[in-house]
């Protein structure tokens, strides 16, 4: 490293990046050195990820288990997929909204869409998706770094890469290293002031922006609380900070294709897209401030959506309502399957007619789910047979 680079790697540069992140709409930003291969921190995280993967916790999410040419799990250590990485700039947006939680009394016949997927109210031109919103902000931070390096006459190439979810990166682990918060027993990153309604994005860099020796992860403030573990309806939180993702309602409703495991359907309750329960019960979220990002404002019509209305969306109406939102990728077909489960769990016989129609329809997964739901409502599927 030349003297120029030495000068750049001062707290001044870090402060400038953090300041840029705030201007780009992030509520929190931290910089951390990536623990080097062979370090204890890297080894512990590698082992954790390997054990998680080998225990089948990823369900059908094969993309989480991708390996390099030597069969090493890409996500087990950042160095496997990105050998040049030295430090990360971790940014977080508060997406909390002034709206009820999923546990508060709700209008009869309503389902639940996860809080993070409500965004896009106001003058955004329609639904927004946090992946796009955060990536745009990260590009500004990335740009600031390159701009400052160029201004300082830096001649050596500096590599950077920005990710929101899609990279081979365990973002939460890096977030706690960068001081964004601690990993709660519900596996989410929690910040003492903001709670856990945080979405994360990361810029990887080949620059040593921070020293590993001064890692200052936020202290664990869960204490003896176990509310999230006790509240999870599908027992996906198998131990503090350990999730069997294949049991998580977020996985079942968003990621899982085809029929859902029957033994988990009852626990899904009225959740039709994602699940907020283990965050809704968290005491650190009781006083969580409302987020201010202009592209993350909630669309009120997505809060406690009517199951009947969701059921009646045809392809065009689904596209019109959810284009650009996280629901678009999951698609109408899976959403209807989830609505059928929620109707089955509703104890409301009025859903019988819709379920009967689906049980006779062309989509075998929806027909099977609707038949299950009818049985759960105590209504016999069409005994006369479908015509
Ligand atoms: C796949 C995925 C899922 C899967 C699996 C989640 C899981 N726990 O593995 C499913 C679909 C279930 C899911 C659900 C949700 N997700 Co998600 N998901 C991801 C994704 C893309 C990869 C996660 C991953 O690698 N999992 C593998 C496991 C091993 O890693 P991990 O749980 O993230 O991190 C663990 C290790 O670091 C380890 N660890 C670290 N230190 C320690 C210490 C000890 C003692 C122990 C035992 C373990 C441990 O524990 C961490 C927490 O489990 C990330 C984005 C990313 N690239 O990281 C978003 C991400 C984790 N998801 C996010 C969100 C918002 C959600 C939901 C809230 C959405 C919703 N409302 O439905 C739920 C939350 C459920 C929950 N309680 O975690 C946010 C979390 C933000 C936050 N504040 O923590 C992320 C970071 C996306 C983002 N860009 O903001 N998700
Ligand atoms: S998101 Fe829901 S299902 Fe998943 S761990 Fe939390 S409470 Fe359990
Ligand atoms: S509910 Fe309790 S144990 Fe769970 S994350 Fe919040 S403080 Fe930690």
Description:
It is a single chain. The strands form four sheets. The protein has a four-stranded antiparallel sheet with strand order 1-2-7-4, sandwiched between helices. Helix 2 runs antiparallel to helix 5. The chain has helices spanning 3-8, 11-23, 40-54, 78-81, 130-151, 171-177, 227-231, 249-255, 262-265, 277-280, 307-311, 315-322, 327-344, 352-359, 364-376; strands spanning 28-33, 87-94, 112-113, 160-163, 182-183, 189-190, 198-205, 237-239, 242-243, 271-273. The longest helix has 22 residues, at 130-151. The chain is α+β, with helices and mostly antiparallel strands and 387 residues long. Among the domains are: 3-96 and 124-214, no CATH class; 306-387, Alpha Horseshoe (Leucine-rich Repeat Variant). It is 36% helix and 10% strand. The chain contains 15 helices and ten strands. The structure holds cobalamin (B12) and iron/sulfur cluster (SF4) (2 copies). Residues 186, 232, 234, 236-237, 243, 248-250, 275, 277-278 line the site of one iron/sulfur cluster.
Give me the secondary-structure topology.
Layout: H1 3-8, H2 11-23, E1 28-33, H3 40-54, H4 78-81, E2 87-94, E3 112-113, H5 130-151, E4 160-163, H6 171-177, E5 182-183, E6 189-190, E7 198-205, H7 227-231, E8 237-239, E9 242-243, H8 249-255, H9 262-265, E10 271-273, H10 277-280, H11 307-311, H12 315-322, H13 327-344, H14 352-359, H15 364-376
Parallel strand pairs: 3-10
Antiparallel strand pairs: 1-2, 2-7, 4-7, 5-6, 8-9
Helix pairs in contact: 2-5, 12-13, 13-15, 14-15
The structure holds cobalamin (B12) and iron/sulfur cluster (2 copies).
